[in-house]
Amino acid sequence: MTTVRTAIVIGGGIAGPVTALALTRAGIAATVHEAYPATATGAGGIGGTLALAPNGVAALRAVGAQEAVTAIATPIHRSAMAVGHRRIALPTLAGVPPLRVVHRAELHRVLHDRACAEGVSFAYGSRLVDAEQTDSGVTARFEDGSTASADVLVGADGIRSTVRRLIDPSAPGPRFTGLLSFEAVARHEVDVEPGTMTFAFGRRGYYLYWPEPGGGTRWGANLPQQRPMSLVEARAVPAGQWLDTLRASYGDDDPGRQLMATSTADELQVVGSLQIMPPVPHWHRGRMVLVGDAVHAPSNSSGQGASLAIESGVQLARCLRDLPDVESAFAAYVRLRRTRVEKVAARAARINHAKAPGPVARTLMPLLMPLLVRTAMDPEKTVADEQRYAIDWDAPVTAEPALR
Fold it and tell me: Entry's Pfam families (predicted)?
């Protein structure tokens, strides 16, 4: 039985509220500290649509949020790949629920409300700058001069994590994927069945789209980019200028041309440069530990970023609940998570490479698509282990080196 009774969670985006919920259910009182001043402008307001894989939705059961999240999400029952005028249906993984797509702000709102209902406290405008550890606890220091103390401190503070630096000043930072991401809803209606997501390889860039419930077509685009731009830099460029670039890039594509032409600058979501986390050597030190994008951020190509963050929050809480001390709990947590998340990240990296094919690859791709679908894109070989993964909340975690 754990001796941990209190926890400070740094970061109020997705991983933070889920981790706090799971800790609360494990009997550990958690307070979430968010750097932004309010929920409306906080981490949940940044970014576009997220995909929740079946394993991520399943993990939400452990914190009682599955039904509330699926109620605001759009199910994706089938997918297809398109290159030029060639379109081919992609095989689906049998025996799993559909992928769910949901706007990040809406997901954040639901998780925040659920956490509050369970007794989780939130502190806003609370930006972490330092932490001091003792044998019995950890004290967090914030930019406004305030402090907070608890038995453990959890870094759920995203890809530019302050907690990661405090754990290991030499820890790697995020890496640029070479892609810049955008999203919008076009007025153009694509001629595909609702619940179908299409992955399209245009002449100058990759994009995806699906029919939006209520009308129009939601699309996301990844443009090749020479240098990374922060979100602030990307959003400093007028949206109309970005839309002109997108229209020029996808003007030769169908339906890319129509999607860009019927989208408006005021609705364009500039998501920014896509970045990933390389393997992080140290996930914890003393009484501090990392979850979510702070320690494992695969590209959004994986469709697993949010789902893995949810899983990690739940698994961390299980380990702290069942093991007698912080050291053994953190060790078990890493044992449960590292191999899984790094395998997903490696798969996503391969997909990113394919998103920006050269002229020869673009020429060959329509010919190779059927072979790729039958072999390299077989879901039983590529994503079965990811999507069928399910956490048994009630099963006790032991210090044995078992992975499940």
Answer: FAD_binding_3
